[in-house]
Each structure stands twice: as C-alpha cells, then as structure tokens.
C-alpha cells in the first residue's frame, strides 16, 4: 500500500510538473504573439500615415486624451522636412456592415483630404470589402466633407461601392469626422460634442 501511495504521489507530481511547464509555454507564446500583433499594428499605422500624407517627413502624435476628446482613435500632426505644417492624420473607427472599419485619413492644411488608408475591416468580400479599392478611396482626395450617392457624384459627393452602401457610408463617416477634427484643430476650436446616431439596419445594399 505504501508503495502504491508513493507511485500515485510520484505520478501526481509528474503530472503537475508537466501541466506547469505547458502552462508556462502557452503563457510565453501568448505574450510573444501579443507583442508581435502590437508591433504589426504600429507598423501598419506608420505605413498608413506615409500613404495618406506622402509629402510629410515626420508625424507627431497628440496625446491620447486629446484624441479621445475629439472622438477619434489618434491624431498626428504632419510636418515637412523644413518643419512646415502639412496638416493632420486622423485615425478613425466606424461601424460598417460586417464590423468595425478602421482607417487613417490625411487632411492637408487647406482642409482637403490628401488620402485614405484602411487599416482593418470585416466587410463582405466582393461587396463592402471593395472600399479598399483605390478607385473608391481616391474619390475622397482633394475634397472636404462629402456625401455618399449611388451614382453620378458631383463635387462634395462620392459614388458608393455598388451593393455596399452601408460600408461606403461608414467609411465616409470616418473621413468626414477626420476632416472636422482637422478643421477644429487648425482653428484652435474645442471638440464638438457628438450626437448619438441611430444604427442603420438592413442589408448591405
């Protein structure tokens, strides 16, 4: 009996040791994965900044509290090599058809959109996901705040992605918010309180 108890205790200790080692390995892998994801997110954001404001030589982030007051994820001031102000880059998040659409919007010193780069989204492939296409995003360039129409866009308007009005409007809401934030910062105005909007229901059409 004593020998059996020793065997049981030995097996229990071995099992405990194996469990502890596996748990430690999983924790280490999880930590490394989180760090890798965080690093990739930073790289993606830096790439997006350069894409939407290619003439800028440097970007300086405003503090997180300021960005939060303006209702956006992040705000960067963009400057040329000689230090001249180029405008602002604003990171925004809006609810699309399939989930959150996160993008970086460049707004030049004149208040015009210099570029839009989508960092992440979960929109429907072949429909809402087409907001990533250059042909759609380039419609914002050179404009201020815009409205979405189904076809025949004039100045101050953009054509929605066919079959993806909700996705188009979601990204546009983010772009318009970035334009507004840049305008307020340019003029030294305080943030405008956001008015809650009802969520759009229905299919992505």
UniProtKB/TrEMBL annotation:
Listed NCBIfam families: rnfG
Residues recorded as bearing FMN phosphoryl threonine in the entry: 165
Biased composition, class Acidic residues, residue ranges: 196-205
Family as reported in the entry's similarity comment: Belongs to the RnfG family.
Quaternary structure and partners: The complex is composed of six subunits: RnfA, RnfB, RnfC, RnfD, RnfE and RnfG.
Its membrane topology: Single-pass membrane protein
Major localization listed first in the record, in broad terms: membrane
GO molecular function terms noted in the UniProt entry: electron transfer activity; FMN binding
Cofactors required: FMN
Physiological role: Part of a membrane-bound complex that couples electron transfer with translocation of ions across the membrane.
Domain called FMN-binding: residue spans: 96-182
Region (Disordered), start-end ranges: 182-205
GO biological process per UniProt: electron transport chain
Cited Pfam families: FMN_bind
Gene Ontology cellular-component terms listed: plasma membrane
Compartments where located: Cell membrane
Name under which the protein is recorded: Ion-translocating oxidoreductase complex subunit G
Keywords: Cell membrane, Electron transport, Flavoprotein, FMN, Membrane, Phosphoprotein, Translocase, Transmembrane, Transmembrane helix, Transport
E.C. number: 7.-.-.-
């Amino acid at each position: 009996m004593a020998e059996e108890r020793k065997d049981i205790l030995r097996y229990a200790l071995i099992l405990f040791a194996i469990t502890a080692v596996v748990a430690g390995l999983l924790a280490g892998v999880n930590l490394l994965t989180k760090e890798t994801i965080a690093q990739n997110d930073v790289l993606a954001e830096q790439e997006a900044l350069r894409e939407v404001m290619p003439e800028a030589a440097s970007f300086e982030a405003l503090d997180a509290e300021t960005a939060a007051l303006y209702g956006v994820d992040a705000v960067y001031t963009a400057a040329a090599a000689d230090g001249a102000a180029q405008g602002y880059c604003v990171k925004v998040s809006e609810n699309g058809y399939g989930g959150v659409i996160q993008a970086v919007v460049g707004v030049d010193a004149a208040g015009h959109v210099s570029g839009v780069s989508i960092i992440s989204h979960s929109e429907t492939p072949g429909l809402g996901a087409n907001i990533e296409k250059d042909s759609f995003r380039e419609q914002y360039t050179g404009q201020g705040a815009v409205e979405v129409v189904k076809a025949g866009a004039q100045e101050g308007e953009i054509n929605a992605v066919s079959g993806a009005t909700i996705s188009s409007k979601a990204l546009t809401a983010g772009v318009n918010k970035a334009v507004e934030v840049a305008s307020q910062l340019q003029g030294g105005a305080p943030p405008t309180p956001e008015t809650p909007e009802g969520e759009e229901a229905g299919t992505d059409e």
